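Table S5 (text form). Sequence records supplied for joint modeling of the four-component complex.
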Amino acid sequence: MTRKEQKEERRQAILMTALTLFVERGYYDTRIADIAAAVPMSTGLMFHYFASKEELLLELVKMGTQGPGSVKYDDKIPPDVYLTMFLNSIFSFAKEQPWVFNMFVFMGQVRRVGMPEEARRLALSADAVTPTVKLIKKGQKLGVFRKGNADTMARCFWASVQGIMEEMSADKEMKTPDPEWIVSMLRA
Amino acid sequence: MTRKEQKEERRQAILMTALTLFVERGYYDTRIADIAAAVPMSTGLMFHYFASKEELLLELVKMGTQGPGSVKYDDKIPPDVYLTMFLNSIFSFAKEQPWVFNMFVFMGQVRRVGMPEEARRLALSADAVTPTVKLIKKGQKLGVFRKGNADTMARCFWASVQGIMEEMSADKEMKTPDPEWIVSMLRA
DNA sequence: ACTTTTGTTGAATTTAAATTCAATTAATTT
DNA sequence: AAATTAATTGAATTTAAATTCAACAAAAGT
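The corresponding structure-token record, covering 376 residues in total, follows.
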């Protein structure tokens, strides 16, 4: 099975290379030839692994809708502590697990404009907001979070996190922010 | 001078139409033909107004580097109050002055990835962070802002604002957030 | 060792969009 | 109202990148 394994490994290599380049330069500014050169392999061979540039994009988005979204919430932890911990780990991933970090940034980019329609739809189907709305409501009940429309608060929270992560992604030198800053948006 | 005036008006119409479409769909997903159809005018005529798609983009970025960046700070207002007021007005622009709001979102997009290099450079030259760093330091001295790296705080602040504005831009139904939420990121 | 299957390349083709252009119409000037 | 100049169109051309393909190389199976 060495043959199949090799192919699968190469497939992953392509996906990771593409993820990095997409996050670094954006989807449209990344040529199939760029990805091929970075892997490295010939341009033509790319099409033995993915039928088209868009299929490659969709594959990445599919990966993004699965993995790190499955963060399970432990009922014993207070909502504010939980979110702080979450931010702490995702920010630390910037250096320790660039893959996870890049995927996070990438998914946020796909959800916004400037991507093929289907990719956007798929990315939007993985909804991070709804669980957070519940968390915020719980925090409001406990008195740790301020009053206000929980849905809007959740969306602002994630929009902020996305914005900050894109900033970190664009400048690797940037100091990691204190998660508390962002959670403070929600605090009572 | 009716002739020249007409031309200038049309030029502005093209710029505004392009701004809207770029923000709505992104630069690469917006065809010259789309802009022409929306103005409306023929595709070919577009090139009597702008030599290329990229020049049109650059023209918009140039506009963006001038206008609303010139927010003057009145020394008598406390930094936290000032930022709250600023957010309040920019958020209210979403409905009242879509043009200003769109430009703000657009500039943020251009500064990030997925745009022709020159446009990005030009957009990055209009720096909103430095003045905010000063403002934050002042707030820290006054005790209204928390301790911490002022530069990182400023960048996080604007990254959050950008993220939230893009969210508002993508969903016009979204409720406007309370500026206080975002300023709370900075508060002591 | 031979045959078949799979991987690989780089050049040729296709495609979609930007850009040009020759022809047409409308406005302005004389 | 004829002549000149500017605006406008839509079809033809160019361009840049994606995609295909014929030929070759390496590996696996016999």
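Note: The CA atoms of residues 140 and 148 of chain A lie 9 Å apart.
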